[in-house]
Write a structure and sequence with these properties.
Elements: H1 3-18, H2 26-41, H3 50-64, H4 69-74, H5 76-117, H6 136-150
Helix pairs in contact: 1-5, 2-5, 3-5
Length: 151
């Protein structure tokens, strides 16, 4: 592969990565890849299919495998070109998936914060309607108020 073609392929991949519709930077996406893989392995992130994860693993193994060095020994340009193509494909796939993961992670955190903030009786100062009153003192205060209304 000629140097100009490699540069063009790299520039095209960079444009795909940079021209995202979200505020998630490339660095945030790169940092999210290990978290995404960990969440997938623990079963917490169902949006990354096992097939796609396997595909990314196969691409990574292909890049570093010693079998891949054979074409580079006999046809150096072709061997290097396929490595670059696979690396661009893997990078674009991983960063695209990690962008979706960051959005999922943000949504999950927001939902969790919403549920914690809206638990009955917690943080609002109001008792949960299903719980008993504040104890004997509260029962006495309620009885005192009832007696005051009768008089």
């Amino acid at each position: 592969m000629r140097k100009a073609n490699r540069a063009a392929a790299g520039a095209a991949a960079w444009q795909v990565i940079q021209n995202s519709d979200t505020d998630i930077s490339v660095w945030k996406r790169i940092g999210a890849v290990p978290r995404m893989l960990g969440a997938k392995m623990r079963g917490r992130y169902p949006d990354l299919s096992s097939g796609k994860l396997l595909g990314m693993l196969v691409l990574a193994v292909y890049i570093v495998s010693p079998v891949d060095f054979v074409p580079e020994l006999f046809i150096p340009l072709l061997g290097l070109a396929d490595d670059i193509g696979v690396a661009v494909w893997l990078t674009t796939m991983a960063l695209g998936e990690s962008e979706r993961f960051v959005r999922w992670e943000r949504q999950s955190q927001a939902q969790q914060a919403f549920h914690q903030a809206n638990r009955p009786g917690e943080g609002t100062g109001r008792p949960d309607p299903g719980q008993a009153g504040p104890g004997p003192e509260g029962a006495r205060d309620g009885a005192d108020r009832t007696a005051a209304r009768r008089s």
